[in-house]
Amino acid sequence: MAADTAAGSGTGRLYSQLVGPLLARDDGADAEQLSQFTLAALAQASLRRDWPGVSGVLAGLAAELQWRDPRLEQTLFGCRFANPVGLAAGFDKNAVAAGIWHCFGFGFAELGTVTWQAQPGNPRPRLFRLAAERAALNRMGFNNAGAEAVRRTLERQRLAPPGQRPAVLGINLGKSKITPLELAPDDYASSLELLAPLADYAVINVSSPNTPGLRDLQEESLLRRLVERLRRLSGCPPLLVKIAPDLEDDAIDAIARLAYEEGLAGVIAVNTSLDRLGLEQRRLAQTGRSLAEEAGGLSGRPLRPRALEVLRRLRAAAGPALPLIGVGGIDSPEAAWERIGAGASLLQLYTGWIYEGPQLVPRILEGLSTQLHRHGLAHLGAAVGLGLPWR
């Protein structure tokens, strides 16, 4: 167990006092600039994590935010996860803080999305807060430095080899915007071939709504061709696919079938949504336009019901053996336990983590430990898919 659950920790209080007011308004500090400022600081900390002053700060952070319970440990697709809570792709796009995510309590972190070609992404503004709804709208467009630069960034951080790290590191891969859809398999393969030696697992992102045509790759025949191309690579790590929340039931069933037939290591459900989830008339402070008029994917608390629904459908179609990662609208221990009950073995946070702060990770882990105790379960895997109530 952790020495401090961080619910009332110094880090939690500091975040609430300094960052909380900035997140309480739609028109507060620019969301993208705030993220960039944070990542710049984390990048320096990761590069210098062995320096005496920096290592002391990180050790203090870990003491507050890590929650250790052997019942939460799992080995899935050849990776040992110290706990089931991970950082979702989209925050550390260029892998600049890969060496320190475990200090924030995460059992794993997904880096990226990384594309073969460096690309600036869509025009700004492209990231918007919906503070009252604890949600966000983004149309970033896979802005990243490209696979070559990400490889150099990871190498500069002198990480332990895959399988020997304090937190599992996945790399999320997308299609370069300039690459035609018919050449997508080679585009993904170029990135994976370069980054595979540095990844514990890799994710095929075919579900972002912000790259034109990308979601077409979720169609069964196109996805099968893409998966087969990647699995032929020498040294291909465990391969997962990330799906959209906007898929019809038959498409979800087809992906579950494909996962088994092609030997995928797992499925991540879900990405951001093009559905406005009842917020069609909600206006963005920065543009004055309604969500119905704006491009981009919706994330955060409004996505929770649909993400849960897709996960349940996927679990029913896939059966109990395929590992599933639940993401979308998880911002409390109760939401995390609900997702475990629906069939997720692992969880990912992003929007909820931003709003709730670093203390969300140990709060969730403590909550999961408590539920295992109250239900008399020896390990987390025993709760997956059972739909047990919150007690």
Q: What can you tell me about this protein's structure?
A:
This protein is α/β, with parallel strands linked by helices. It has a single domain, classed as TIM Barrel, CATH 3.20.20.70. The chain is 36% helix and 14% strand. The chain contains twelve helices and 13 strands. The strands form three sheets. An eight-stranded parallel barrel has the order 3-4-7-8-9-10-12-13, surrounded by five helices. Helix 5 runs parallel beside helix 6 (184-195). It is globular, with a radius of gyration of 19 Å. Mean pLDDT is 96; it is low at 2-7.
Condensed summary:
By secondary structure, the chain is α/β, with parallel strands linked by helices. 36% of the residues lie in helices and 14% in strands.
